[in-house]
């Protein structure tokens, strides 16, 4: 297996929970530092990396709505929470000398640049890690959809979904010990079997733009680097 990366430009989707470590809420600095290290290793391979972070570790719009909040207001709060996660990841990356820019879909001039597609591409070309904050900027969407959308806009070669398990399984491996991992699966099969990879809108955007989704575990050391080199356990979602 060659050490050369398979992809020139990728988008990494991290759920908010990935930053939580063993805690039940918020940001665990050691975990963010570890993930920053993984991103730095991938970046050193010469891959252009952009990142979308969720906010499930802080606030989800649906949770607010279920407690009686107006859904749009709750979703805007969720998007603001992704900005906090993005800044924490930016801080951890810059601590290890990785140049970054945070681009927010909700303009927030004092803390980040506004999202401008051409500017984002320029940052990537200059070797900066670009962190897209505030999801799509629209309520009723998720950061999974934002990740697929930005991956399409940036012409990424792959969308990497870092999760708690090392791929897509026939059933939940924590519940069903006979569950097996798919090496490859088509977009439509993911949708028709309702496999929880990303939400349906995100899968559709990836499918329409022929962007493979690679699902891998964030818990294994150098998992991101390995996936970029075609090694390590993962599931690739592509084709029909
Ligand atoms: N959100 C939104 N529009 C977007 C992206 C996110 O309204 O384009 C809000 C939504 O309320 C969501 C929250 O931000 O619940 C956090 O994002 P998500 O649930 O996708 O985070 P993750 O599950 O990846 O941690």
Main β-sheet description: 9 strands, mixed
Low-confidence runs (pLDDT<50, min 5 residues)? none
Small molecules held by this entry: uridine-5'-diphosphate
The helix-strand sequence is EHEHHEEHEHEEHHEHE
Description of the structure:
The chain has 240 residues and is of the alpha/beta class. Helices cover 37% and strands 17% of the residues. The chain is built from eight helices and nine strands. The protein has helices at 29-44, 61-66, 71-95, 117-125, 143-153, 187-192, 200-208, 223-228, and strands at residues 9-14, 48-53, 100-104, 113-114, 129-133, 158-163, 184-185, 213-217, 235-237. The chain has a nine-stranded mixed β-sheet, with helices on both faces. Helix 1 (29-44) packs across helix 3 (71-95) and helix 5 runs parallel beside helix 7 (200-208). The longest helix has 25 residues, at 71-95. The two termini are 27 Å apart. The structure holds uridine-5'-diphosphate. Residues 15-17, 54-56, 60-62, 75, 78-79, 82, 135-136, 138-139, 141-144, 146 line the site of uridine-5'-diphosphate.
What's a concise summary of this model?
Helix 1 links the parallel strand 1 and strand 2.
What attributes does this structure have?
single chain, 240 residues, alpha/beta, 9 strands, binds uridine-5'-diphosphate
């Amino acid at each position: 297996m060659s050490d050369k990366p398979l992809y020139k430009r990728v988008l990494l989707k991290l759920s908010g929970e990935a930053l939580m470590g063993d805690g039940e809420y918020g940001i665990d600095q050691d975990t963010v530092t570890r993930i920053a290290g993984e991103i730095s290793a991938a970046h050193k391979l010469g891959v252009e990396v952009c990142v979308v972070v969720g906010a499930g570790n802080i606030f989800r719009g649906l949770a607010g709505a279920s407690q009686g909040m107006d859904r749009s207001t709750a979703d805007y709060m969720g998007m603001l929470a992704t900005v906090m996660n993005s800044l924490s990841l930016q801080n951890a990356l810059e601590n290890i000398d990785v140049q970054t820019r945070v681009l927010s879909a909700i303009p927030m001039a004092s803390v980040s640049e506004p999202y401008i597609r051409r500017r984002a591409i320029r940052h990537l070309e200059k070797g900066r890690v670009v962190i897209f904050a505030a999801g799509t900027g629209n309520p009723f969407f998720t950061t999974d959809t934002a990740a697929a959308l930005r991956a399409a806009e940036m012409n990424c070669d792959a969308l990497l979904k870092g999760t708690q398990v090392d791929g897509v399984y026939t059933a939940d491996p924590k519940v069903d010990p006979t569950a097996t991992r798919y090496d490859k699966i088509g977009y439509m099969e993911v949708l028709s079997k309702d496999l929880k990879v990303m939400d349906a809108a995100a899968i559709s955007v990836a499918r329409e733009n022929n962007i493979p989704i690679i699902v891998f575990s964030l818990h294994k050391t150098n998992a991101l680097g390995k996936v970029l080199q075609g090694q390590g356990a993962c599931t690739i979602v592509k084709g029909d």
